[in-house]
Amino acid sequence: MYYKKISCVLVAAAITVSGFAQPKKVAAPQSKMDQFVTNLMQKMTLEEKIGQLTQYTSDMALTGPSIRAGYKDDIQKGNVGSIFNAYTPAYTRQLQEMAVKNTRLHIPLIFGYDVIHGHKTIFPIPLGESSSWDLAAMEKSAHIAAAEASADGLHWTFAPMVDIARDPRWGRVAEGAGEDVWLGSQIATARVKGFQGAGFDGTTIMACTKHYAGYGFVQGGRDYNVVDVSQRTLWETILPPFKATVDAGVGSFMTSFNEIAGVPATANKWLVNDVLKKQWNYKGFVVTDYTAINEMVNHGNVANEKEAGEAAINAGIDMDMQGAVFAKYLKQSVSEGKVKIQTVNDAVRRVLEAKYKLGLFADPYKYCNEERAKTEIMSTANLDAARDIARKSLVLLKNYQQVLPLKKSGSIALIGPLGDDKRDMIGNWSGAGDWHKSVSLLEGMKAVAGAGVEINYAKGANFTDNKAIVDQMNTQGGDLVTDDPETLLKQAMDVARKADVIVMAVGESQGMTGEAASRSDISIPESQQRLMREIYTLGKPVVLVLMNGRPLTLQWEDAHFPAILETWFAGTEAGNAIADVLFGNYNPAGKLTISFPRSVGQIPVYYDMKKTGRPADPNNKYSSKYLDIPNDPLYPFGYGLSYTNFSYTQPVVDKKAIKTTDKLNVSVTVSNTGNYDGEEVVQLYIRDVVGSVTRPMKQLRNFRKVFLRKGESKEIKFTLTNEDLKFYDANMKYTSEPGDFKVFVGSNSRDTQEADFKLIP
């Protein structure tokens, strides 16, 4: 009793000070942005709010930009919050003046555009750039792209695409960073930092993480197809790069076209509202992909566009791209109680906050500086960076008997439809890039080789002789020109017979890959295969230069040609960059970030697969294998050669057992044993030998890109922590488990040496 009395006295004393109750906690003062947005929203009508959630497109033609008459009226009435596909300082100023001067509340527009791998100065496609394994270079290219785009009137890019993809039939593998979750997350972070910088100072732009989520897992590799993945695949493979961009402060998200667990992503409340906005505490805004709300009717989860709009905004969508569903039906949905006004207000606040952070309320014309556009866009420094980053992205796949580098003497035959081609150098999704200003391989080789080399060119073959494919591609801007195949082949053979060495530039046209460009057969087209077979009969040394936006099946090429260089679509400076590598001015150091299958029948094939209960055994018929080809890819993840050679010692761990609070140090000595200075990407992988759920055979956890002079050795050190050992256990808890682990270090995911350690309680 005595204790209780004392307690009561203490409680009474706690709630009274000099006879007065303590004041209630005062809410934290609003930030200037909160105050500004709150005050603005109090003045807005429902129609004006819906306008902020609506995005329409501008049109770009050879004669210049234009806005559709109806959209012009919508802007001046305050019924549009964003315009995309509009750029140049003069044009965006014109549209911004419509919004700021003619509307009641003078709310500025956000101008968005697909600045995917450069704005006017085009860098390698993202898949190619990821092969550099150079995070600083990728951040730099995004920063240059942002500087050019912001100088050209833009505020916002629909990049980076962070979809993990393991099916090269899907054309959009070109737009991502490949098959690995850990590396993909690092690259996603680097690109967000590059686009957005430390803040929106007028030289950076807002990034947009896409496509949320699962788009890279479309069935059959067919674009826009359905996706069916488990919760485990979602959390372990698909979602981590998206979360990485949230942590990096990305300004916006874009939903994907596909469904997750039977619900289209654009209406998936669990995915958008519960995970992204609540669990991850994401404060940016979410935009749909192009007309994705409208397309939900085709999915079959709603009966009409009005219901689609209600499902989308109730799921957490903040902006409707091009579909006009919010514009047509949202007011009615609110009046019927199908959508709460608070849901609308939350979406509007997120869009207005983005405009505030971009500085558009302080200065709507902040990004409309024609003088900066003249000095920034395609500057010498930007072009130099494009050439350097392109060189870093090239991957040497084969170099039997050191055919490469080429000598700067003698005669070379350059043969193939990509040999003197400017159009395809900048690749797919090159946006505002002008292919007329790109450097062809022929131009680059002549410039780098100098007068001591005779270089003769012949096209040799069309990209494809399939008229149906040519017609289809040309209706979509493919720009394919077809010539008589027999004449082309004869010209190529005549040129090849006179040469000491033959360089063959073959692969895909830019329109054969990217969005809406899935291929069931990812071999080099038959017209070019015929050319290669004929050239092979000459018995001369051949260097195969590949240009493509995806892994290709290359079993015949690998078996018959001594040298193969993967160059992707390398951008504005492609020809110069490729020539730098061919002639040895630059020693290639790129490594694949996606596996190259031997055959389409292997797909999906990726390095961090799990081990089956019946692993391949040549002596056991009833084991997991193909009858006609090996199980492993032709070129594995992390693979890439150099003009020099590197040797590795066995990795050494400083402890045989660690606790969750410990760090494990791993060291290995790498030596340059060849005749050239060069860079090597030293890769570290782990394996959890036994888990409550089965674990992959290898998982990338770190890498170092190291430069070594010939004859030089360096000790490379890595540190592993408990975070590197975590996974989603049998209860979907993200944790590590005590047990045996392996650590692997090597030049790619296949060629490694290992050491063992234990994690103990």
Structure description:
This protein is of the alpha/beta class. It has 3 domains: 47-373, Alpha-Beta Barrel (TIM Barrel), CATH 3.20.20; 391-602, Rossmann fold (3-Layer(aba) Sandwich), CATH 3.40.50.1700; 646-759, Immunoglobulins (Immunoglobulin-like, Sandwich), CATH 2.60.40. The protein contains 24 helices and 31 strands. The strands form 9 sheets. The chain has a 6-stranded mixed beta sheet, with helices on both faces. A 5-stranded parallel beta sheet has the order 8-7-6-3-14. A 5-stranded mixed beta sheet has the order 23-31-30-25-26. Strand 1 (16-17) and strand 2 form a beta hairpin. Helix 7 (135-151) packs antiparallel against helix 17 (380-393). It is globular, with a radius of gyration of 28 Å. Residues 1-23 have low confidence and may be disordered.
Note the main attributes of this structure:
alpha/beta; TIM Barrel; Rossmann fold; 6-stranded mixed beta sheet; 24 helices; 31 strands
Assign the CATH superfamily of the largest domain.
Glycoside hydrolase, family 3, N-terminal domain
Q: Report the principal-axis shape.
A: globular
Structural class: alpha/beta
Count of individual helical segments: 24
CATH architecture of the largest domain: Alpha-Beta Barrel
CATH class term of the largest domain:
Alpha Beta
The largest beta-sheet arranges its strands as 15-20-19-18-16-17
**The CATH topology of the largest domain, please?**
TIM Barrel
How large a portion of the residues is in β-strands, by DSSP E? 15-25%
How many distinct beta strands? 31
Q: Compute the average pLDDT.
A: 95
Give the N-terminus to C-terminus distance in angstroms: 46 Å
| Unreliably modeled segments | 1-23
Radius of gyration: 28 Å
Biggest sheet architecture: 6 strands, mixed
Proportion in helices = 25-40%
Number of domains: 3
Catalytic activity: Hydrolysis of terminal, non-reducing beta-D-glucosyl residues with release of beta-D-glucose
EC number: 3.2.1.21
Enzyme class: hydrolase
Subcellular location: Periplasm
